[in-house]
Amino acid sequence: MERDKIKKCQKLPFQICPILNIRGVNQEGIYYIGDRGREYCIKWPTDSLWKKKEFQKWLHEILIRTSDRYRNIADREVLEKLTREEEDISEKLFKKRNPILARTGTLLQWFRFSRTMNIDLEIFGINDCPVSARLIATFRLHYTRNPKIVDETMQRMTAENGEICAICLYKFDLNERYEIWPGTSTAQHLFHYDCILEQFRTDFKCPLCREPASFI
Ligand SMILES: [Zn+2]
Ligand SMILES: [Zn+2]
């Protein structure tokens, strides 16, 4: 019954399970909270693994853009999952192939290593993204806890100094979200928050000083 609804549905499946009740999407389907707090799953209308993955990716991307609540759940899951997966990989690969990195490696070194060793990063929710899903999740959570909004003082100061966001090349307007490039540099390069997230898709280095994005 519900499978048929999704098949015919031209719009998003929010009519079937309201966005607020969605707890997550995975390769099996949409998990949501229904009657009496029980968890239900609407399975994807296909048996093909490839198509299931496409459905998952499609809805995940829409929800990441549209739902703060879903984004928070997804970010937390990435962080928790990565901790376990990292331990696992460190166990299986690092100690065997690179014992020094296994003991001392930072996240970025680990990330580069996993690339050169051709470890399937899809299991971490990373596709072609040079910044790890873990760092993006940490960055988003960090911003949620310490949101930075352009106020009148900042707007005036950046305008006087001719400072712009070096990613989109626009000035900082009142009430826009901004953030400092996450890293160890004392330079504190500012960009729009959304521009940094966009930058993470293609590049993990600061557009101004090429410092790699990191959280200590
Ligand atoms: Zn910008
Ligand atoms: Zn910089």
From TrEMBL:
<dbReference type="InterPro" id="IPR001841">
    <property type="entry name" value="Znf_RING"/>
</dbReference>
<dbReference type="GO" id="GO:0008270">
    <property type="term" value="F:zinc ion binding"/>
</dbReference>
<keyword id="KW-0863">Zinc-finger</keyword>
<keyword id="KW-0479">Metal-binding</keyword>
<dbReference type="InterPro" id="IPR013083">
    <property type="entry name" value="Znf_RING/FYVE/PHD"/>
</dbReference>
<protein>
    <submittedName>
        <fullName>RING-type domain-containing protein</fullName>
    </submittedName>
</protein>
<dbReference type="Pfam" id="PF13639">
    <property type="entry name" value="zf-RING_2"/>
</dbReference>
<feature type="domain" description="RING-type">
    <location>
        <begin position="165"/>
        <end position="210"/>
    </location>
</feature>
<keyword id="KW-0862">Zinc</keyword>
